[in-house]
Amino acid sequence: MKVNSKFKVFMQTDLSASDFKVLTMLYQPLIGAEAYAIYSTFYHLAKKSDTMSHQMFIDLLNIKLQDFSKYREKIEAFGLLETYANNEDEYTYVLKPPFSAKQFFVDTFLGTYLESEIGPKNLERLIKMFVIEKPNTKDLVNITKSFDDLYEFKTTKLLNVDYDLEGRNGNSNKLIRNSINYDEFVKLLPRALVSTNLLNNKFKQKIMQLAYVYQFSIHDLVAIYEQAHKGKKNITIEQINLQARAYYEKNNNELVALEKNVSEDALLSELPCKVIIEKYASQDPEIQARALATVNDFIGQNDIDHGVLNVLLMFILKNKDGLLPHVNYLNKVWESWRKNGVQTASDAILYKENVEKYWKTKNEKNTKKINKPNWLDEYLDEISEMEG
Fold first, then answer.
1. Disulfide-capable partner of 180 in 184, 211, 248, 294 (CB 3.0 to 4.6 Å)?
2. Is the pTM of this model over 0.90?
């Protein structure tokens, strides 16, 4: 980062007094007073649309540039800030609101982390600061009127507003696949390996994604994390990806059998993609591990229904003799499917069958006229381009 580089700060909602109370009493002990000051200053700068230099900002806070970078990364690690860069000349900072006190203590492991830093007695004092008094309504009758009790208003649609409006945008991001109890995973890690990167939402999402793709259990992930951490002070998701692939190769399990007492599309929606790879890909463990790594990259780039993903993998593996091509190839095929209306497993099955039926008819040089959808010609042209 250059000291004369410029930046803008954005925030999509105002913070309340309760938000600042949480930031001051719960986050500040973890991120430090300097990081808290940066967040607070950013918040007030977000009210202005002006571009500002980092030199002016560090002068304002009386800190060094390298210290600013360190404290900013702490804010990012706790999910309070997203940073976007254009080389080293322009930066965009997007502030995120903090968790509520209930989310902090109950829904995440941040409360446990705070307890490890300040001790159980101090934690108990902080918790009491956020206790609310609730009225006793057990023996009372709720006579509150609802909207439809007083008004008659019928509509068939909601408003369609083409503007970005204020909203709680920060810590409500959904994970790609909620396949394991992430908090339980963190609790099982050795104390010495618990670091702030585990609190980063993107890091968490990648861990959950690995569990989904490889069908790892929590104990599998703990073993992988420990192995990736050996001899290193800091750990990256790339190092975990590498160890995940090695762990899979070493502990390659037998194909999981499921009772087929449901419809084909429902079965495909429940079947782990790991099973598809093990059944249809080459039986070489190294090739299967590489295929799963490709699937991991693919779902990290695309929002795709699980059943559709399985059909897509079956189709490509069948036509590639059990070898899964580069992720760019998968992206190209999926884009073609998506453009032609594939959204569910049923759509994908029908689409796949139509393509294969057309290819079969073409290969047999059947002169009988077939009624093929227009999208098939475009699809085949795109495949031909990819094949060179």
1. 211
2. no
